[in-house]
């Protein structure tokens, strides 16, 4: 009886109503529930992967850090630095590591205010402006604690708890040990503070919602310190620590997924950055750098030149100028050792980029006395390029420092596409190292898209890969990409 009365009191007679509205509410509720579940899964995953918070890394890193010549400790010297002399050593070490991380490249928009940020970084989702990392207390990181700095480097979280965008490569920097991070902080504390507030980011909705980085991190970020491989040599481990940490080579040389995360299955197989092709640096002998001698690869890092193979241009020229030229010989060879041990990826390439081409023999004489009424690649090459690269394409100055490089057996001319070649003609080359100052003029303001396409196609046909070709319209697209 009581049961029937209870059912009667709680029975609601259905009323006709707007069923579509109910369905929409159900859909919204399901969506909210899905997002909540995803968030809960992320929190659970994060908690399971988080170790105890500590300021200084106590893990043994001897195999990864190696030693400097003469038995003196390398990176480990930072941990033992005490007193005034120790502080100087810490700052000096931090300066080296800051250069290795190429911090100045992204955090400098005006050379008169280094590390003050403001550089516009183009992404598929909008524009991000790099922050000020000078020790200015109001606009820089002067008020940041060491813990704040460590959290940004290792977790991608700013001082105020905001999620940082992965244009800042915390995906790689998470592997840098605490001693080295604190050395970088010590050095940054010594640079001149600059009172400058960069412009706000220009990201489209919903990409301007920083909290969404929680879900990006779930799929694209594996937080954790570098752990040496006990089965590998100290040199290999040192190279792995550098390449996958501060040097963040994957950020340019690894293709990305639709979320702009790194495709780990295709590590170092090449990608496009601001219109420039960052080439395959796996040890595949045709698609990558497997045929380069170790010395040539180390020389490329230190000088930007691997004779008979490649000359650094575009973003890589800036990397050499700002970063890798300062590598110690030991660190440069450790990087080579690590790259040599990676899985080779051909990328479908059947002939190495640096094996194409032959000298031009009769092009100059063939043009003599011949009226040219159309855009002619050979004529444009002789008029604009031959004074430095010689009309044969063999270059001027042989292998001397500062020589004008040969276009024969040249990676840019022998690439599968002529994009980098056209970009070099458009923007020139600027690369200053300890031994040489390289300057190739930019022809973008002097030549039309059609003319640049004609020169590029002449170079690839004569000195490089004859299957690589580019149109004037494609040159126009490259020209429009901000640099």
From TrEMBL:
<keyword id="KW-0479">Metal-binding</keyword>
<keyword id="KW-0677">Repeat</keyword>
<dbReference type="InterPro" id="IPR008168">
    <property type="entry name" value="Cyt_C_IC"/>
</dbReference>
<dbReference type="InterPro" id="IPR036909">
    <property type="entry name" value="Cyt_c-like_dom_sf"/>
</dbReference>
<feature type="domain" description="Cytochrome c">
    <location>
        <begin position="234"/>
        <end position="343"/>
    </location>
</feature>
<dbReference type="InterPro" id="IPR051459">
    <property type="entry name" value="Cytochrome_c-type_DH"/>
</dbReference>
<keyword id="KW-0472">Membrane</keyword>
<keyword id="KW-0408">Iron</keyword>
<keyword id="KW-1003">Cell membrane</keyword>
<keyword id="KW-0349">Heme</keyword>
<dbReference type="Pfam" id="PF00034">
    <property type="entry name" value="Cytochrom_C"/>
</dbReference>
<keyword id="KW-0812">Transmembrane</keyword>
<dbReference type="InterPro" id="IPR014353">
    <property type="entry name" value="Membr-bd_ADH_cyt_c"/>
</dbReference>
<keyword id="KW-1133">Transmembrane helix</keyword>
<feature type="domain" description="Cytochrome c">
    <location>
        <begin position="89"/>
        <end position="192"/>
    </location>
</feature>
<feature type="transmembrane region" description="Helical">
    <location>
        <begin position="29"/>
        <end position="47"/>
    </location>
</feature>
<keyword id="KW-0813">Transport</keyword>
<keyword id="KW-0249">Electron transport</keyword>
<feature type="domain" description="Cytochrome c">
    <location>
        <begin position="372"/>
        <end position="463"/>
    </location>
</feature>
<feature type="region of interest" description="Disordered">
    <location>
        <begin position="1"/>
        <end position="22"/>
    </location>
</feature>
<keyword id="KW-0732">Signal</keyword>
<protein>
    <submittedName>
        <fullName>C-type cytochrome</fullName>
    </submittedName>
</protein>
<dbReference type="InterPro" id="IPR009056">
    <property type="entry name" value="Cyt_c-like_dom"/>
</dbReference>
């Amino acid at each position: 009886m009581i049961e029937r009365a209870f059912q009667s009191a709680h029975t609601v007679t259905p009323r006709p109503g707007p069923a579509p509205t109910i369905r929409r509410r159900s859909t919204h509720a399901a969506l909210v529930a899905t997002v909540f579940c995803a968030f809960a899964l992320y929190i659970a995953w994060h908690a399971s992967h988080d170790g105890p918070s500590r300021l200084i890394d106590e893990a043994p890193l001897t195999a990864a850090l190696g030693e400097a010549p003469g038995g003196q400790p390398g990176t480990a010297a930072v941990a033992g630095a005490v007193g005034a002399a120790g502080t100087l050593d810490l700052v000096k070490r931090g300066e080296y590591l800051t250069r290795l991380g190429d911090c100045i490249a992204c955090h400098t928009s005006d050379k008169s205010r280094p590390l003050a940020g403001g550089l516009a970084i183009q992404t598929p989702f909008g524009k991000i402006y790099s922050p000020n990392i000078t020790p200015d207390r109001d606009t820089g990181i002067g008020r940041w604690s060491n813990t704040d700095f460590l959290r940004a480097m290792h977790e991608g979280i700013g001082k105020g708890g905001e999620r940082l965008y992965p244009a800042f490569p915390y995906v790689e920097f998470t592997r840098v040990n605490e001693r080295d991070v604190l050395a970088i902080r010590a050095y940054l504390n010594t640079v001149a503070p600059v009172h400058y507030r960069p412009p706000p980011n220009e990201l489209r909705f919903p990409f301007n919602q920083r909290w969404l980085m929680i879900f990006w991190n779930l799929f694209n970020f594996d937080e954790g310190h570098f752990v040496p491989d006990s089965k590998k040599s100290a040199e290999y481990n040192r190279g792995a620590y550098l390449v996958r940490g501060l040097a963040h080579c994957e950020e340019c040389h690894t293709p990305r997924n639709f979320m702009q995360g790194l495709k780990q299955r295709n590590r170092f197989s090449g990608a496009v950055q601001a219109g420039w092709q960052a080439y395959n640096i796996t040890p595949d002998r045709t698609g990558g750098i497997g045929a380069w001698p170790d010395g040539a690869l180390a020389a490329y890092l230190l000088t930007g030149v691997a004779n008979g193979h490649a000359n650094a241009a575009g973003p890589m020229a800036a990397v050499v100028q700002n970063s890798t030229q300062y590598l110690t010989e030991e660190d440069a060879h450790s990087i080579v050792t690590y790259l040599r041990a990676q899985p080779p990826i051909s990328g479908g390439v059947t002939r190495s980029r640096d094996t194409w081409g032959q000298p031009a023999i009769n092009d100059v004489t063939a043009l003599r006395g011949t009226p040219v009424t159309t855009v002619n690649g050979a004529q444009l090459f002789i008029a604009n390029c031959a004074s430095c690269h010689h009309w044969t394409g063999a270059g001027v100055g042989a292998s001397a420092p500062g020589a004008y490089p040969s276009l024969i057996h040249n990676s840019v001319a022998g690439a599968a596409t002529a994009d980098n070649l056209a970009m070099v003609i458009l923007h020139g080359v600027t690369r200053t190292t300890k031994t040489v100052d390289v300057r190739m003029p930019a022809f973008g303001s002097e030549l039309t898209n059609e003319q640049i396409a004609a020169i590029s196609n002449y170079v690839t046909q004569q000195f490089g890969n004859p299957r690589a070709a580019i149109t004037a319209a494609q040159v126009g697209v490259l020209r429009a990409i901000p640099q």
